[in-house]
Structures are given as C-alpha cells and as structure tokens.
Amino acid sequence: MLRKPKKGWTPQHWASWKPFGIGEQYPNNYWEVFRAMWLSRDRLPYAWEILNKGVCDGCALGTTGMKDWTVDGIHVCNVRLRLLRMNTMPAFDEQILADVSQLRQHKSSELRELGRLPYPMMRRRGEKGFSLVSWDAALDVISDRIRTTTPNRLSFYVTSRGTVNETYYATQKAVRAIGTNNIDNAARICHSPSTAGLKAALGAGATTCSYKDWIGTDLLVFIGSNVANNQPVTVKYLHYAKKAGTKIVVINTYREPGMERYWVPSIVESAVFGTKFAEDFFLVNLGGDMAFLNGTIKHMIANGWVDESFVNNYTSGFTELKAALDNQPWSELARISGASRDEMYAFAKMVGEAKKAVFVWSMGITQHECGEDNVKSIINLALTKGFVGREGCGLMPIRGHSGVQGGAEMGCYATVFPGGKPINAENAAQLSQHWGFPVPETKGLIAPEMIDAAYRGQLDVLFSVGGNFLEVLPEPDYVEGALKQIPLRVHMDIVLSSQMLVEPADTVVLLPATTRYEIPGGVTETNTERRVIFSPEIPGPRIGEARPEWEVFLELARRVKPDLADKLRFADTASIREEIAQVVPLYAGIQHLQQAGDQFQYSGSHLCFGWNFPTADGKAHFTTLTPPQKELPEGHFWVATRRGKQFNSMVQERKDAITGALREAVLMNPHDAASLGLKDGDKVILRNHLGEFTGRVYIAPIQSGNLQVHWPEGNVLLDKSKRSLEGVPDYNAVVSLEKQA
C-alpha cells in the first residue's frame, strides 16, 4: 500500500512564509484564468463547455473536463488556458492572404492571433497570395498530383496537439491505401527513443505505471524533465506526494525553479505559502546523464544495494553490465557527467534505501544522438531494485502533447503498423487481408528524412497536418530551402503558420481543420498513463468549411484509388473505434467509449505486473552501456535548447513566468560568467560552424561549462545530421561565446 498524504498543513514543505509568495518569481495562474476569460469573452459559454466537458488538448495528463483519475478537485492549468482561445476564436477574413508579403514579417504568435482558417485556399508559383477554392477543386489538385507521381515521392506528417486516435488511425489507413508508409507524427521527434528503449528492455514500449504511483512512493526521480513548465497539473500531484512522505529528486543541467518550488493555485495551503518539491538536485553536464547513472549503479553494486533475488530470477545481462562498469573509471564518469563520485554515491544511497521508486523523464533524455541509450541507462538503474511492475514503481516517459501517445499506437508512423507492429512482409500481409487492399511492406520516411528528401528534389508532395517543420527542426534555413523545392505542399490546420507562407515551388494548398471538440460524434485520446479517454463533441459555433482530418484523408484516398472506395469509408468516429478494437488488440474496449467520462487504461495500472515481461525469454534485459566520449574544446560551452512560456514551438510570451528569463536569455553559470567578465544582461554571441545566436547573459544555477537558450530560437545552432537511432534530432550543440560591445 502506498502512503497517504497527511491531513492538515505541513509548514516544513512551504516554499516561503510570505503570503502568496509576494516578490517571488512564479506564474500568476489566477491572472491566466481572467486572461482566458477575456480573450474568449465573445464565446464564454462555449469556452466553459470545452473546459468543463472536453478532454484537455494540452499535455498528456488527460483531464476529462476539469477532473482526472489521480486526485480529487478541479484541474485546469495555464497551458490549457493558453490554448483555449485557439478553440473559440472566430475565422479571419480570407482577404488577408491575398498578398502574403506583409504576413511573412509576422511572428508565428501573431499569425495565430489572426483567427481560424475558414476555407480551402490555394497559391501558385508567382502569385502574391492565396485565393479561395472549393473543397472539390483542392482535392482534385492534390489527388491529380499524387496520381502522377510514385508513392516513394509522397510524404504525410501529422502533429500531436489536439490530434485524436480516430484521426491517426483513419489517416494512416488512407495513406497506406495510396501506397506508401511515408507517414509520421510528432512522437518521432520526442519520445521515440523511449518507446524503443522500453520495448527492447521490457518488451513493453509505454509508461509502465500510473500517475497515482507518484503519491506515496518512496522516491520520485525526474531526469531531464520539467513538469512544472510542461505539465503544470502535475505540481498538484507533487504537493500531495510531499505530504505523503515521497522524496523528490531532480537530475538536470539546470536547477529548474519550478521543480524546486511552486505555488499551486487550487490548493489553499500551497496557493498561500507555496510548496517545496525537489529535496535534492544533481546537476550534470549536457549529455552526462548516462555517465551519472552508470556511476550510481557502480555504487549500488559496491554497497550491496542491488536486489539480487529480482536480478537473478527476472532479468538477464546484469553480469555483462557489471563487467563493463568495472572498466569505467570513476575519473571518466565524473568528467563526462560533471558530477562527483560523492554525488553519485548520495543518489545511489537514496535509490538503495528506497523500497519503491518512480523514474520520470522527457526531452532532456531523448533529444540526443544517444537518446535510446540514455533511456536504457534509466531502465538499468530501475531494474537493479525491481522498480517496475508493482505499486509505487515505474518508468514514465511523460508526454507533453495530448495526442502523442496514441499516434504510433494507431500506426501513424513510418516504422510501425497499428499496435506498434514492425513493418515487414508478414505484418503487411495481415493488414492487407484485414483491410482488403495491398499494404506496403517497407519502412517509410521518418519526419526529418522527409525534409532531406525534399532538399534533394526527391519529394513531389508533402501533406502536413498541423506542425511547423520550419520552426521545429534544426537548421531552419535548410528546412526552408527544402520546403521551397516541393512541387505540392498541403497544410491542413486550424490557424496560420509560418511554413504555409514559404514560397511555392509550384502549388501550396491550405485546408481548414476542425478542433477535436468540433468533430461529430466525439473522439478519443490516449494519455501518458495509457488511459484512453472519450472527448465528446461540444455544440457551439463552427468555422466556415472546416472539416475533420480523418474525413479529408479518406476522401482523398478514394479519389486516388477509386477501385478501393468501398474499403475506405467510415460512417462516423464510432465505426473507426470499432475497427481500432479489431486491429489493435491493446485497444479492445475503445469501441465502448461513447460519452464524457468514459475511459479505460489499457493493460491495467501497471505494465509487466508481477514481473511478467513480454520479452522472448520472459525476462527484463539490462543493457551494457558506455557513455559517449564527448570532449569540450577549450573556450567552448555545451548549449542545450529549452522551453519557456510556450507549448511545443508555439511561443506564448516573451518572458517565462517561472524563471523570469526573456526569449533572448543565455542561461549561464555565475562562475563561468565572472571568469569571462560578464554580468547579467550583457550582450553575447554564440557561434559554431552552423550559425550564430545573439542573446543576453542570464545568470542562473546551471552546471559550469553549460549554457541554455530557448527553442526554437536556438535552432540556428543545431546540426541537422545529428540524430538518434530512431531519428530524433539532437537539440544540443557546442559553441564559442563572445561578448558584444
């Protein structure tokens, strides 16, 4: 049994004795409520219905309305409130697109604020802007171009903000009917290393536990993850975890203020005095996590803190791992990690003394060339104590987008079919038999490879649902050059984005999409803890001729392959769910979700429960890992890209309310700054062989030798060729720093 949170107030956990944190730097969440109300004042009843009945389209916590399955009370965060206006805003006047020369000067945030895209529009090469077209005309242009090329020269990309299981499933089915596996989604560039690592080690590629396991476990560890910024509802869980006696630890390059303390607005005690979260921070170098965790395991072995019974009976590969660690000198592990042997011991002692523990990680672990191995190093540590498959234990790659968990599971992925099945001849044959048409049996282009193909002139069509390659991928000039070479680009979205305005090689088509709350019949999403949740259609205003993406893709496929028309129809979203239940056995039960509040957690509260691992040998697998031997040239810094007040690449404010840093901030260690004669606010230039970033010094508690800049502004410093095995770009770089007069 997990410990329960103590009743009554606990002053030892207060962040400050000053009421309401007067003078402290933290988000004014009450202001966010009033701001959201003001922006949606023209449609307040509709906005309230979305908040009260719809499943959150922000991060992947998956609140239904304003409640969840973890703790009681009202849950609404500033991320969701910032996204609300995108669901309630009216359409823009299509005449604003008649000449895009001025719009190209706008920031993406300004483009979003113009309003919803109401009608299909088209722009040909040499034209100043876009003209209205009918849906028929738009789909004719797209289908004609697809028919005149070959499947290998097509690509389709689906984002994850607000995208639902039904859209993912129907879209990938339509694309495969057209004849290609060149379809990918946003999961590719965030947690694909997590899926690969978990699948290889445990046989299960998703979060193994539930959010409830955070509250009352002995040890809760966050590695390269900042939930206070990206999943703000979780700070409520952290408050109750502290009251239940859970020890919270963070391993990161930067001592994130929001992970240290927060004022939780919906809990009176925390709203007044705040809550201290992390008791210990272990600061590591960029890319030093694996070395730090290897050192931790060395200490655990040396001190007899390993659960030998579990290791001997339920795992394989430990002997090989131990031998490899014996050959990794402490001096090297300390140099690479940036942490001392004593710090590794201190963390190992915490893990060794814990009877239960949960490990949470995010982009700080996965978005590296060695992302898969970073994940496996966390799994190695958890397996030393059997921290999986039981209450209060687990491995959690936490998701930052509400739709991302279901994307690959529905098969909207270039490297797997629905259900996560590998793309091969056998699985293609099974799908072909089920769907009644031939399914391609070779892997498709992943998202970054689509841009590479376009740059080489090997792509004729790019169909992008949401997303913005121009602001998401490294080397934006390269990406823009690639987009300019694609004969037909199709962008389906609810608002304008900067990539829509890139000059056409021949034709650009814009298609208006519905939000998840506008889709007739309702839809489902899958959250981080594998909970599949029904989100009902919310009656209210509708925008022009906006259509659900799933309908559009199936109609397009019918036009391209008229002989398959009868096999490419769904009466409604309920019939899509019926087929999902048949094709993806894990999702059996999705067909019964019909109204608000309906949900189920596939595979139960814990994967691998009772230490039953769905691997070939029935055991969990340790992985022998050698930390990458990265050398930092003299006078250079590691630089990581970070999020501020934003949702994915959608920047919402120039200033981050948690850190106080502006978008041009270069977060820097105070001793590093002093050694270079720099102080807060000094203008500096970061340079490498790819580009330069001009910013201002922001003194921060960050590991010496490391810098952080905001993303996507820092993309100019990133190398497009550096990717993990699963294709995740490495969102880090090495730079020189120069003070600018």
TrEMBL record:
Q: Does the keyword Protein biosynthesis apply?
A: no
Cite a single Pfam family from the UniProt record.
Molydop_binding
Question: Which keywords are on file for this protein?
Answer: Iron, Iron-sulfur, Metal-binding
Q: Does the keyword Metal-binding apply?
A: yes
Instruction: State the taxonomy lineage.
Output: Bacteria, Bacillati, Cyanobacteriota, Cyanophyceae, Nostocales
Question: What InterPro entries is this protein classified in?
Answer: Asp_de-COase-like_dom_sf, MoPterin_dinucl-bd_dom, Mopterin_OxRdtase, Mopterin_OxRdtse_a_bac, Prok_molybdopt-oxidoreductase, YdeP_MopB
Protein name, UniProt field: FdhF/YdeP family oxidoreductase
Q: Cite the Gene3D superfamilies for this sequence.
A: 2.40.40.20, 3.40.50.740, Dimethylsulfoxide Reductase, domain 2 (3.40.228.10)
Q: Which residues form the Molybdopterin dinucleotide-binding domain?
A: 640-734
Q: Which residue ranges does the record assign to the Molybdopterin oxidoreductase domain?
A: 116-558
